[in-house]
Amino acid sequence: MMKKLVLASAIVLGSLGFVACDSDDNSGDQTPNILEGSWEADELSYTMPDGQSHTWEFDHPSIKQGCATDYLTILANNSASLTENNIDDTGNCVDVVIDGTWTEDTVTIEGETEPRTIIEVTETTLTLEYPFSFGQFETDVTVTYNRQ
Question: What is the pTM of this model?
Answer without folding.
Answer: 0.75
